[in-house]
Specification:
Blueprint (H helix, E strand, L loop, with lengths): L3 H37 L5 H33 L8 H7 L2 H46 L2 E3 L5 E3 L5 H6 L1
Antiparallel strand pairs: 1-2
Helix pairs in contact: 1-2, 1-4, 3-4
């Protein structure tokens, strides 16, 4: 059973997880926004969209550091290693008053992470297609393109993108 200070640490952890959950929802929103920019192929807004995603990711990293401290306090109270304090562990170890909260967090985090992973893959795919389009356009113009190492290479005299598509 958890003592009263453990309840306080568990409550702090629940609050910390609420904050992280809101950040993940905000990240999902920013990824959806970036996705719409990529679908619209409006290159003017790709940079700002990526910067917004990066800013949310920095906030998430800070929140993870804060959570780590609260998890350590909970682990100390329960005489376990911080690595043992998983969402499943919290559902089992939480006092009755917080058990449903941790169950809800567990479900919500799994759902959000799944959505974020799918959208991230789709955004990468769209960004790659967009990059291929830019390189193809440069190829049609007969200008230099850049390889993965950032070296300028002369484009071939024939349209590379059309060859790849056909």
């Amino acid at each position: 059973m958890v003592n009263s200070s453990g309840n306080t640490n568990m409550a702090r952890l629940a609050d910390t997880l609420w904050y992280e959950r809101r950040l993940l929802e905000y990240l999902l929103f920013k990824l959806v926004s970036a996705n719409l920019v990529l679908i619209a192929d409006d290159r003017r807004f790709v940079g700002p969209a990526v910067a917004e995603v990066d800013a949310v990711m920095a906030e998430i990293r800070n929140a993870e550091e804060q959570r780590s401290g609260v998890v350590s306090a909970v682990a100390t109270e329960l005489n376990v290693s911080p690595s043992q304090v998983s969402m499943a562990f919290l559902v089992e170890a939480a006092p009755d008053s917080l058990r449903a909260t941790f169950e809800d967090h567990k479900s919500a985090f799994m759902h959000l992470v799944g959505e974020i992973e799918i959208l991230t893959r789709e955004n990468r795919r769209l960004a790659t297609v967009g990059l291929d389009g830019i390189q193809g356009t440069l190829g049609f113009a007969g200008g230099d393109i850049y390889d993965a190492a950032g070296r300028a290479t002369r484009t071939p005299d024939h349209p590379v993108r059309v060859d790849r598509v056909l």
